[in-house]
């Protein structure tokens, strides 16, 4: 038998899979993996029912359903004032993860470096490595803010890509205008690098408003922007998102996309084509802010220290008053002993540094939040 050599020898099962499996095994309330447990909009279901009965069951065009591409471009114009060419600058993808992976494959060559801000979503670094590149991890501050001088110090002649996530998972932070300007200045001083902006939680922001890279004209010619219908419309199982980039970059992305998935689920695309014009995305932040406030209000009598949460549907908490255990062991104990599954934040860090933080997902119905917080307040 020939020798087999792994391309990702250091990668095991993700912490999300481990904790969700443990939650099921111990019948714990699952506040770990980021998916809603409440119904999607009735109008979206009605549209899907009509589409599924229609003649939309064959391959869609490789870049996406033409109507959906137009609706996406209209959404971008409405919310960000940017005019994009739907045929040349937008690509429908099999979820945001595929958009991220494909963009990285398009720009990273063997020996190139990509800067990743930790804690980070777990698909960034492996995608860089699979392209033959090297991820350069830069730790964020303890409050999930970014020292941009530290980021710039990590840039070298080999750096090809800067990856940012805003609003930030797991931190729940939102970049300020000063943060955005710092990114623009870095891009200006280093014209050889590209920007990948992961904005899957773009409409889930609260007191601090999300500033999309779609609004920054000076760097759009070197920027990939990733969005997620799954996050926006609570349909994570549909695995559908999209990528926006200038034509010369998108041309390279499409070359790779066609050999990964070729095209994305036809019925989901047609449903979203019909639903997007009637969807009021401006209300999404308020919807999740109520859930955030409900969760935080019920946690007031707990011994957890809740950090600030300005976006996403995740709440990070410090548990130092409760236990000296490392966050992985504490999350395991939470699941097995106390019946609530959470995510240890160290799993988002390349160096696994442990600040005794865990992440809750509050994208749940009221009954689930009440039952979970009752357990959490007894710890």
UniProtKB/TrEMBL annotation:
This is Methionine aminotransferase. InterPro entries: Aminotransferase_I/II_large, Kynurenine-oxoglutarate_AT, PyrdxlP-dep_Trfase, PyrdxlP-dep_Trfase_major, PyrdxlP-dep_Trfase_small. Its cofactor is pyridoxal 5'-phosphate. Keywords: Aminotransferase, Pyridoxal phosphate, Transferase. Belongs to the class-I pyridoxal-phosphate-dependent aminotransferase family. NCBIfam families: PRK09082.1 (NF006569). GO terms for cellular component: cytoplasm. It comes from the Bacteria. GO terms for molecular function: kynurenine-oxoglutarate transaminase activity; pyridoxal phosphate binding. It comes from Brumimicrobium oceani. The keyword Oxidoreductase does not apply. Pfam families: Aminotran_1_2. Residues 28-375 form the Aminotransferase class I/classII large domain.
